[in-house]
Backbone:
């Protein structure tokens, strides 16, 4: 039974070492866990309310820009409409101005 426990432990240790070597570019499991804890600690400094407020401000700006874009498109459409019906442009109803 002792051999079985030892063999099982060695397999687990080998898997752990393989996992640690896969994370070597990050400094191994210890560094990864330290990084995770640092990010977790730093994120506590930012409140959900602050993130929601900034997100709402961005949404307001985007909605305003979309409104401006919509209005500019309407102006462009009016301009095109008037250009099509302007007798001085040579285009228009019944060939007026030609």
Residues:
């Amino acid at each position: 039974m002792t051999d079985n426990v030892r063999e099982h432990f060695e397999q687990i240790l080998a898997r752990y070492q393989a996992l640690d070597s896969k994370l070597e570019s990050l400094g191994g499991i210890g560094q990864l866990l330290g990084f995770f804890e640092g990010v977790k600690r730093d994120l506590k400094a930012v409140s959900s309310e602050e993130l929601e407020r900034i997100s709402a401000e961005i949404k307001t700006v985007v909605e305003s820009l979309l409104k401006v874009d919509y209005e500019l498109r309407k102006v462009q459409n009016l301009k095109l409409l008037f250009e099509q019906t302007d007798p001085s442009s040579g285009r228009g109803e019944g060939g007026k101005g030609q």
Notes: Residues 47-86 form one domain. Confidence is low (pLDDT under 50) at residues 94-98.
